[in-house]
Each structure stands twice: as C-alpha cells, then as structure tokens.
Amino acid sequence: MLSSVKCRFISLILFLITASSLFASYETEGLLKRLDKELAKRGHYIQLKENRIENIRGRLTEEAYRNNPEVLYSLYDQLYTEYKSFNYDSAFVCVNQLNRLALQLNDPDRLTQSRIAMGFTLLSSGLFKEALDTLHTLDPAKCSLAHKQELYSLMARAYFDLADYSGDRYFAVLYNRRGSLYIDTAISYLSDDTPDYWSAVGLKKMKSNDYKGAVDAFNFLLTKFNISSHQYAIATSSVGYIYTVLNRENEAVDVMIKAALADIESSTKETVALRNLAALLFKKGDIDRAYRYITLALDDATYYNARHRKIEVGSVLPIIEGERLRIVENQRQKLSRYAVVVTILSIIVLFFSLVILIQLRRLMKIRKIQQKTNKDLQEMNTRLSEANIIKEEYI
Prior knowledge:
Order of helices and strands: HHHHHHHHHHHHHHH
Structural class: mainly alpha
Number of strands: 0
Distance between the termini: 111 Å
Largest sheet: none
Strand content: under 5%
Shape: elongated
C-alpha cells in the first residue's frame, strides 16, 4: 500500500516537472516571437526618437539667434539625453556644447553636470581612461548631493566595466575593489526609497557574487518603482546575467528577451541584452536566431560607436557564424549525397526503362508473328474445310 502511494506521488512530481518545463518552453517561444516582431519594428521606434531629436534641433536653431545661454543649455541637455545611449559622436558634440555654455554662464553646478555627462559618454563608448580622467577632475566636496550620487555611481560603473573589459585576474580584482568602494560611497548618499538606491545595491551585490541578494534587489526595483524602459532594460539584463552564471539558462533567456524588448522600445544602441541573448540561444542550439541577433547587436554597437561592445560582440560572432557555416556545409554535403543517390537511382530507372522498352519491342514483334501465324492457320483451316466439303460432295 505504502509502495503504491509512493509511486503515485513520484509520478505526480514527474508530471508537474514535465508540465512546468513545457509551459516554460511555450512561454519562451512566445517571448521570442514577440521579440522578432519588435525587431522588425525597430525602424519605427528609431523614427520616433529622430523626430524628437529634429524637434529639439529646430528649437536650437530658433534660439541660436537669441543667444540665450541658459535656454541653449537646457536644449542641449535635452538633446544629450536623447543621444547619450543612442549615438556617441552626437552625444559627444552635445556635452562639449554643455561644457562651453556652463563656462559661459560661470555656473559651477552646470559645469559639474556637463563633466559628469562627458564621463558617461566616454565610458559608454569604451574610452575608460578618458572617462576616468574626466571624472577625476571633479572635487566631490564641491558637488551637490545629487551630483555626488551620480559621480560615485558612475565611477563605480567605470571600474566595474574596466574589470570586465580587461579580463585580467590581477587587474580585474583591483578594479572591482575600487568599484566596490565607489558603489558603497554612492549608496551612502542615496535614499532607500529611490530606484537609484536599489539599482546600486543590486550592482554591488552582483559584483561581490551575492547573486541571491542582487536578484532580490533588482526584483524590488522592478516591482516597486515606476522606472523608464532604459532602467528596466539594465535591471533585467543584470538579472539575466546572474541567471546565466547560476546555470539557470531558461530563466536567463526569458529575462534577456524582456531586456532586449525594453532596449528596442527606448531605441538604445549601447546595450548588451541582445548580444547575451544570442550567446544563450547559441548554447541552446537555436543557431539561426543566435546569428540574427548577434549581427543586430554588432550593428547597434557600430552605430553607437561603442568600442568595447564591438570587441565583446566580435568575440561571440565568429563562433556563432562558424557553427552556422558548419551546419550549412553539412546540409550541402547531405544535399550532395542525396544528389548522388538520386542520380544513381535515375540511371538505374533509365536502364530498366530501356530494358523494358527493348522487351516491349520484342514482344510486339512476337505478337505480330503470332498474329501472322494465326492468320495463316485460319486460312489453312478454311481451305481444309472447303476441301472436306468437296470431298464429302464427291463421295
């Protein structure tokens, strides 16, 4: 009796696991189809952004004649906001204008803001040394609270990104240690009822390998605050990275898809979600999608001019492309083998067709001979019958 109950319980558990796996697979496929549709509409989202940019540019042209530095600063700040994760070259032009106008206004607060913007722009493009040099020119003691929060958070990100980029065991440890010090300082200036606080806490825990704590922090950020699409993409991309490290690849794929969808919606070109998603799909054997996504990720990195992102994509693209070429070559070889087999079969069919045709011709000749023989026999029988009749009449 106990054995029977135990078997039923195990069967129920196995059924639930199987059903859960099938549901997860179905949900992932649904998300991938949605992502493919949104990728096809990327041009629409980019057009919306370019319309906003053109609107600001038009207002800048109008204000240039009035030469009001405060209004121009505000407009260039709006233009920079549109460009900062969209195109490095244009963002760089904007921050130079912001810096010039801040100096013209002799406004230390705006000058600090323009330097922080310059640091963010250089960092996003992979110019780590230049970004750190720019940020180190600022004196935190002279910064406002908001600028301290932004400065220390950006310094932390710079060292964390530099650690990831270097890939060197010795220097990466040093960079991560410095990044941790800066993120701790940033957290000390942030309030725990803000999204920036939980974003910083999630980053700190992720870089210190406290993955459960990091996921909890990012999930709190995602569920408790009304954040922008770009902030949502960063948080979900971070959670996806953690799931990848923990070998929870199915969950990582779902989260990375959501991050990629948010990047498309916000027209973000300086992104990692699509690249990481391509790598995950490649491991799962979805080569066609992986190749399509990694080429789109390379297009984004090139459009933004993110040097480190191009290198990161470049480390994955040849592997995926090589596997894709291998599959194509295997298919070509299979087709070649099928072609040889079909050719041989065609030759065999043709040979037997010729044999059958020859046999049919022989049969036709035999049939004609038989017909002629039958005709001769009929004539002979007719003559015999006539001879018999004459014989009987004679008798």
